[in-house]
Design brief:
Layout (H helix, E strand, L loop, with lengths): L24 E5 L5 E5 L2 H5 L3 H4 L4 H4 L2 H12 L8 E7 L6 E9 L2 E8 L8 H13 L4 H16 L3 E7 L5 E8 L10 E2 L6 H9 L2 E4 L9 E2 L21 H10 L3 E9 L2 E10 L7 H43 L13 H8 L3 E6 L2 E6 L4 H13 L6 E3 L17 E6 L7 E6 L4 E6 L23 E6 L8 H18 L4 H39 L6 H24 L5 E2 H13 L6 E4 L3 E3 L1 H20 L9 E8 L5 E8 L12 H14 L2 E7 L2 E8 L4 E3 L22 E5 L3 H13 L4 E5 L2 H10 L4 E5 L1 E2 L2 E2 L1 H9 L3 E6 L16 E3 L4 H15 L1
Parallel strand pairs: 21-23, 28-29, 28-30, 30-33, 33-34
Antiparallel strand pairs: 1-2, 1-5, 2-10, 3-4, 4-5, 6-7, 6-12, 7-8, 9-11, 11-12, 13-14, 13-17, 15-16, 16-17, 18-19, 20-22, 22-27, 23-24, 24-26, 25-26, 31-32
Helix pairs in contact: 5-6, 5-9, 6-9, 9-12, 13-14, 14-15, 14-16, 15-16, 16-17, 19-20
């Protein structure tokens, strides 16, 4: 017969049990909104048997308003494991309210509902805030977890609430507890890793909360038992998911009648649990469960923050020690350079002794290993060579000879060279401790009434084990501190070979050259920016105007710098320079900047100067010149002469009549003086009434002949692939989150302005104040519809589309029947299609 132990639990498909707990019901809906699965108990809640529900449209089963709300929740759902909730929702006209949760399981939408329970005494946000504040007042991790257990018990009213932390070996320990008087304490007890099987731990990382309201309750089946894939419905994220028979028996053996678990995560991994037990049936309302889940998330972040503060202090100590090590060994070599720091290294790792063994020489601090033991340990480390740090708190488990080494039960070994035998070894002594287990973790488990599966252990009486031969485990911060010093010890401190010294000297020389060059360039850039800021003040009348002017000029320099660095500080293309400014500042007007001339490259010394001049010409044209309206164009042409000099002509036409300015601003100064002053070139500005004309000449030493190309327009739009989008879109949506989501998608799809209104009155005011090019209307706005807005848009001949949670069931008047309709949840493709259609109609 096959041996049976607690690892049998790891093979149980606890998410595929095909049944639910009876305090609610479940429906599974296809992408076409047809009911594919229903729980047996649906009739008690909806008045229709599961068999009668399957194959029907959800709009025939639930009230239209309920379907609309569910569709709306899907719009804001994020991630594969996302669950959205709606509280106090009537699922049928005139029916009782339900608390509803929705999530996806593959291609099916899972809808779970339970009757709403009035919680007049609970204001969830206020309750969670108060709970978090009380926990935050505690100073130590121990006090924090104890206070958190008290707060969760007060919220959930369970008989016992434990904070259960997982150890490095997967076993768990109760580190805090709040318990009803008279039922004993589990504080300090440990549970073997197999008590919570692997698949259960994986679900705890995906779902923050799990409730079992009554372990003796009958569990309604989900019909049909098998889905389209041939297997049971995956209920991994289900709040109603039935409970494994093995776990039910486990709870019965503990005398528990109901339980609730809240995950405690650290960096997305399971750190521990709030484990809540009740010695009889106990159902917690969905509203309280949601508050408990939110508190669990906040507590996880608080705990992680406190632990990170401790780790950060440790890392800072390591960094300071690292800096002093580097400074100390700058003129020293060999093991002697480390000897003064062994005490600090020992303190940093939190150990009793440290031994440096290198080149046949040994130096130690604190507890030390004798020569024979050190030889055995070094031989073991050489045989199990690793490039990284080796650590263990139970050396005897790897090296049997170390069973009696009380002063080195745990070690961290840092290799100091590629040669065998060179190590820095941190040692911790044996800590004899008595561990209290909840029952003997090694007790044999036999096959029982569940057949060839597991019968969980029945004894949970405290069983004490004396643990010997182990040290205190190394913490993550201690290991990180030692590992951060490893490269210093390898590459800098030891100076192992003359080759390394020579290479280091070359690297240092290269670094000095780079620093000198960088220092020169940074000083020039800082001086230039200081000048831009100083000179831009005079023309600005407001802080915002000053910011916009300076920001534009600095961004022009940044774009030029990016283009140069992309060429590894080589010459940059003139056409790329002009196009970059046009695309950054002109947007849709960029195709009215017509370029013509040979393909030439500009040396880095002149690229930034010319970029700033082009920026001023572009912005000036967009504000006052040919590109400030819808008619004008700018022609930019250039040629090179026999000396290689570049002659560039800027000619505007079709814009407003040009008048010579009465005063010269800093922008004009940049255009007229930058190239002559910085490059020794020429610049001439002519204020022709028909359009500004500028002639620039850049000396040949800054110009490199490039590949032949036709510059064409500054931006070459592809009409078929990206038709023009509406510039201004009005969104009428009463749900703020959905409205913000739509705004983000519309801006991504090319809209330059998105206005939002939550009701009819606000929408009509928005249309009157600033006429949109297109509008997107949620048909149902709570207590009103958007039909009045649609009629106004139609009267003003503004294109629009409807969005609705009612799908194809939307009932529109005849004169609006041709208006496009998008069903929630909205997809980016659907929005793109209606925008494309609207743009085509406008053309």
């Amino acid at each position: 017969m096959t041996d049976v132990d607690l690892t049998n639990c790891d093979r149980e498909p606890i998410h595929l049990l095909g049944a639910i707990q009876p305090f609610g019901f479940l429906l599974a809906v296809t992408r076409q909104w047809m009911v594919a699965h229903a729980s047996d108990n649906a009739q008690g809640f909806l008045g229709q048997a599961a068999e009668d529900l399957i194959g029907r449209s959800l709009t025939e089963v639930l009230d239209g308003h309920a379907v609309h709300e569910i569709r709306g929740r899907l719009q804001i759902m994020r991630g594969a494991d996302s669950v959205e909730r709606v509280f106090n929702l009537a699922l049928q006209a005139g029916g009782e309210p339900f608390d509803v949760a929705v999530h996806y399981s593959g291609d099916l939408l899972i809808i779970e509902a339970e009757p709403s329970r009035a919680e007049s005494s609970l204001e969830a946000a206020s309750a969670v805030r108060s709970m978090a504040n009380r926990v935050a007042e505690r100073k130590t991790i121990e006090d924090i977890v104890h206070e958190a257990a008290r707060q969760v018990r007060a919220l959930t009213e369970f008989d016992r609430v434990m904070v259960y932390r997982f150890d490095h070996d997967g076993a768990g320990e109760v580190i805090a507890e709040s318990v009803r008087p008279g039922i004993g304490s589990f504080l300090g007890q440990r549970y073997p890793a197999s008590d919570i099987p692997q698949q259960a731990r994986a679900l705890y990382e995906r779902s923050w909360l799990r409730i079992i309201a009554d372990i003796d309750a009958e569990t309604p089946k989900v019909r049909p038992a098998l889905g389209p894939s041939g297997g049971p419905l995956d209920l991994s994220m289900s709040m109603l998911r039935a409970v494994s028979p093995i776990h039910i028996e486990y709870l019965r053996n503990m005398g528990v009648g109901a339980s609730l678990s809240i995950s405690i995560l650290r960096q997305g991994k399971l750190w521990g649990l709030f484990a809540c037990h009740h010695y009889g049936p106990h159902h917690v309302s969905y509203e309280r469960r949601t508050a408990a889940e939110l508190f669990g998330q906040i507590f996880s972040y608080m705990l992680e923050s406190r632990e990170q503060e401790t780790e950060a202090r440790h890392v800072e100590r390591a960094r300071n020690l690292h800096d002093r090590l580097v400074s100390s060994v700058a003129t020293a070599s060999g093991p002697a350079s480390l000897t003064p720091f062994l005490g600090e290294l020992c303190s940093l790792a939190g150990c009793e002794g440290v031994t440096l063994h290198m080149g046949g020489q040994t130096t130690s601090h604190g507890a030390s290993l004798d020569a024979d033991r050190l030889k055995i340990l070094v031989g073991f480390l050489d045989d199990h060579a690793t490039r990284g740090v080796f650590h263990t708190h139970h050396l005897a488990a790897h090296l049997p000879e170390a069973k009696t080494w009380q002063d080195a039960a745990g070690i961290i070994a840092v290799p100091l060279s590629r040669e065998p035998g060179d190590y820095l070894i941190f040692q911790r002594g044996e800590v004899v401790r008595e561990v209290a287990w909840a029952g003997d973790p090694n007790k044999a488990v036999t096959v029982g009434p569940l057949g060839a599966r597991l019968t969980p252990r029945q004894s949970f009486e405290t069983w004490k084990e004396t643990v010997r031969g182990q040290s205190r485990p190394w913490s993550a911060s201690e290991l990180a501190a030692v590992d951060s010093l490893r490269l210093t010890l390898l590459e800098v401190v030891m100076r192992l070979t003359d080759l390394a010294n020579a290479e280091r000297g070359k690297a240092q020389h290269r670094q000095e050259v780079l620093i000198a060059e960088l220092n020169h360039r940074v000083r020039n850039i800082l001086g230039l920016i200081r000048g831009l800021i100083s000179q831009s003040r005079d023309g600005a009348t407001t802080v915002q105007q000053f910011f916009d002017v300076v920001s534009g000029r600095v961004q022009a320099l940044a774009r030029a710098h990016d283009q140069i660095t992309q060429q590894h500080w080589g010459p940059g293309a003139l056409t790329d320079l002009i196009r970059g400014e046009a695309e950054a500042y002109l947007a849709a007007k960029a195709d009215r900047l017509i370029l013509s001339g040979p393909d030439v490259l500009i040396e880095p010394q002149a690229f930034s100067t010319l970029s700033l001049v082009i920026h001023e010409l572009v912005t000036n044209s967009a504000k006052y010149g040919a590109l400030c309206d819808s008619r004008g164009e700018v022609h930019v042409s250039w040629t090179t002469d026999a000396s290689g000099a570049l002659d560039l002509a800027w000619r505007e036409q079709g814009g407003p009549t040009v008048k010579a300015p009465t005063r010269r601003g800093f922008g004009s100064t940049i255009i007229e003086r930058s190239i002559p002053h910085e490059l020794g070139g020429e610049a001439e500005v002519t204020f022709d009434p028909a359009g500004l004309r500028v002639a620039l000449r850049v000396p040949g030493r800054f110009v490199v002949e490039g590949r032949a190309a036709d510059p064409g327009k500054a931006v070459a739009p592809v009409a078929d692939e990206r038709p023009p989008r509406p510039n201004h879109v009005l969104v009428v949506e009463d749900n703020m989150i959905i409205a913000l989501d739509l705004e983000g998608v519309l801006l991504k799809l090319g809209a330059s302005q998105v206005s939002m209104a939550s009701n009819v009155a606000a929408a009509l005011e928005a249309i009157a104040a600033d006429r949109p090019d297109f509008a997107f209307l949620d048909l149902n706005l709570g207590e009103e519809t958007s039909l009045p807005v649609a009629e106004q848009l139609q009267a003003e001949k503004i294109s629009f589309a409807f969005g609705t949670g009612f799908g194809d069931q939307a009932d529109l008047p005849e004169h609006l029947s041709a208006v496009p309709i998008i069903s929630k949840p909205y997809s980016e493709k659907a929005l793109r299609d209606v925008l494309k259609a609207a743009s085509s109609q406008r053309r």
